[in-house]
Amino acid sequence: MRYYLEGQSEVELPASSVAELLSALAARYPSLSFHLLDSDGNLRRHFNVFVNGVHIRELNGLTTPLHPQDKVILMASASGGKGEAGYV
């Protein structure tokens, strides 16, 4: 993803929810948008989002509220070939 973030590994963006953060990220880095969001604006299935180390599926999904001190990590799923399980 660093390629789409113009070489940066971290970005600070103000957002009150995960959905708002993803929209702001896609707006700031348009080339990332296609890889991150589907045509309906939803997060693509192969991306995992963690807020302070907790997957958003264990929180409130895309409506998970964010605070200025929160750290959000976007991680693309990795999968193996020829019958091997993929691990993240």
Count helical runs: 2
Which structural category do the helix and sheet elements fall into?
alpha+beta
Helix content: 10-25%
CATH class category of the domain at 18-76: Alpha Beta
- The string of secondary-structure elements, in order, is HHEEE
CATH-defined architecture of the domain at 18-76: Roll
Instruction: Kindly state the number of beta strands.
Output: 3
Query: How far apart, in Å, are the first and last alpha carbons?
Result: 15 Å
What profile does the largest beta sheet have? Answer: 3 strands, antiparallel
The radius of gyration computed from the alpha-carbon positions, rounded to a whole number of angstroms, is 13 Å
CATH superfamily of the domain at 18-76: Beta-grasp domain
Q: In percent, how much strand structure appears in the residues?
A: 5-15%
Task: Give average pLDDT, whole number.
Answer: 83
Shape: globular
What do these coordinates show?
The chain has 88 residues and is of the alpha+beta class. The chain has a domain at 18-76: Roll (Ubiquitin-like (UB roll)), CATH 3.10.20. The protein contains two helices and three strands. It has a three-stranded antiparallel β-sheet with strand order 2-1-3, with no helix packed on it. Helix 1 crosses helix 2 (30-36). Mean pLDDT is 83; it is low at 83-88.
